[in-house]
Fold:
Amino acid sequence: MLNSLAIANYRSIRQLVVPLRALNVVTGSNGSGKSSLYRSLRLLAETAQGRIIPSLAREGGLESTLWAGPESISDAMRRGDQPVQGVKRKEPVNLRLGFAAEDFGYLIDLGLPTPSRSAFAKDPVIKRECLWAGPAFRPATLLVDRKNGLVQSRAHDSGWHQLTTSLPSFDSMMARFGDPRTTPEILMLRERIRSWRFYDHFRTDEQAPARQPQIGTHTPVLSDDGADLAPAIQTIHEIGDSEGLEAAIEDAFPGAAIEVVVSEGRFELVMRQQGLLRPLRAAELSDGTIRYLLLTAALLTPRPPSLLVLNEPETSLHPDLLPALGRLIARTASSTQVIVVSHASRLIATLEDEAECQNLPLEKDFGETILANRESLEPTSWRWPER
Ligand SMILES: Nc1ncnc2c1ncn2[C@@H]1O[C@H](COP(=O)(O)OP(=O)(O)OP(=O)(O)O)[C@@H](O)[C@H]1O
Ligand SMILES: [Mg+2]
Structure:
């Protein structure tokens, strides 16, 4: 389980350490920074897939994603007595992301490239990566330390050992190392991050893949686009939490039941509803119904990830369905850590009723995203290393 997420200089987040529990709900008004927080988690996940630099480029490059405000905000700036522009920086430009789990933590620090004539002169460069044991970064707990091209590991207390001196500035150490015999700690880090799962806006339009019959095989993990909804539901029926599945359908659509019909190898989802003489096929269900079924399949996965992140799952759901969705999310959070980004008040209210729920309301303060309830949260220590 992740205990904290730390972000510096990413979009509207100048400096934020977010404490995490088993169930977390990120809320806030438009422009408060919810998507920035969500995207920073995705960037960390993309680092483990070797894709952080292209992902940043797609967002407009480092210069556009970097916090556009001053390095620090003085009281005089807040009062309007000191201009925001023209204050000399103390630290080099950096975008930093990191997390701490119970057993280890990781951070990455990206900077601007030195000017060159290369066609890739705008690519950000990875300056530092640290992997440490235990809950908090300290020089003494470092297991693997990357500084520019130099990567060193300190496994088994046998002193520092150089892995390379020439790791390219665009490669994470996770892209290059992770051999189970020589660098098992990097392998563990990479696999842990790769097991995070994100669900963001499923398609439910007429042509949506989830509405079409699909060739099916065992599907313990619903795909990002939900195309394998029918086989995923059947897999839950056969080897997963089929009781939970029935309860989730009954909770949202009293008297209804879903079934998967297989014909000539193709799986199709159908739903029996009260008052109808025949079941309706997935193609005939409403957008909200399909979306709820997709979320059910994602949440009741028989292969729970270490972290499940849902971005605005309420989209196109009627508010009456949100308490049922909230209860389903809470059920999932008993076996998997869940982060929900939402601005649907009924969903938020249902989740906040859960004892284990960490409420993370974001707000803007002088252009900067902050936690509105930071005073009442448990203090979380975080330390960024020097470059
Ligand atoms: N480089 C940057 N520096 C500072 N602020 C930025 C930067 N890039 C974007 N922003 C601002 O960050 C804010 C947060 O945006 P974000 O998309 O995370 O909001 P949100 O909470 O998801 O809002 P919504 O509910 O509308 O989706 C916006 O007000 C945006 O203008
Ligand atoms: Mg948003």
Summary: The two ends are 28 Å apart (CA to CA). Residues 180 and 187 are 6 Å apart (CA to CA). Residues 34-48 form the longest helix (15 residues). The pocket of magnesium ion (ligand 2) is lined by residues 34-35 (CB under 6 Å).
